[in-house]
Amino acid sequence: MGAVFSIYSLKRLCSVETAINKLSLDSIFSWVKAASSMTRRDFIRRAGIITILLFVIAGNACYAGLPDKTGNSLPKPKRIMPQTKPFTVTGEVVDVWCYCSQVMGSGRGEPHKACALACAHGGVTLGIVADRTSEVYIAAKYRGYQGCKDLLLPYVAKHVRVAGWLAHKGGCTVLKIKSVELVK
User: Fold this and answer.
1) What is the distance between the alpha carbons of residues 43 and 33, in angstroms, rounded to a whole number?
2) CA 13, 16, 21, 25 torsion: positive or negative?
3) Whole-model pTM?
4) From the centroid of its chain, how far is CA 167?
5) Is 108 within 8 Å of 157 (Cβ atoms)?
């Protein structure tokens, strides 16, 4: 019968924390490998000890935010709250790249409509340029996991009133659209 390792004998050898730090997958595999020469009772005991040690290791990972030996602690993750607010804007639907870069002129109006449609079909993001402020609102989402291309394509180079939710972060203003209506 092989030597039986228990939590008690593990504590006698060294503290649980030190034992866990010294524990490696090789030692676990060697315990399991020796199972062929053990009785059923010893095998079950050894398997139970391995399970307990794995739970202790996982538990130590859960306490990462607690102070360590030096008194330092990792910052606890903050709960992320949505930073959106209901919003309505009136403006023109444009392709964001041409409007912002101005590589194709002003990137607005009927003269730019064909280019904006080609860009939108190619994957360029559409947005709304506000009438009053000329601020660009990137149309990021419509519903579920859908972008806004299919929703806004009929309105390219036209004035619309868009209602939805606005989010602003890092200099980028994005809009999740709830509804779009043509403004005459």
Assistant:
1) 10
2) positive
3) 0.56
4) 16
5) yes
Rg (C-alpha) for the chain, rounded Å, is 31
pLDDT tens, residue by residue, 137-163: 999 888 778 888 899 999 999 999 999
Residue 171, both tokens: 């200099």
Helix (H) / strand (E) containing 137:
strand 136-141
Three-state DSSP class for residue 131: coil
23-57 pLDDT, tens digit per residue, is 555 565 665 566 556 677 777 777 777 777 666 76
How big is the chain, counted in residues?
Answer: 184
77 phi, psi to nearest 5 deg: -65, 140
Contacts of 11 (CB under 8 A, 6+ apart): 19
H helix intervals, 113-156: 113-122, 149-152
| DSSP three-state, residue 9 | helix
Question: Which residue reads 């050898």 in tokens?
Answer: 13
Q: Which residues pair with 163 in a beta bridge?
A: 88, 179
Provide the phi-psi class of 27: left if phi over 0, else alpha when psi is between -120 and 50, else beta. Answer: alpha
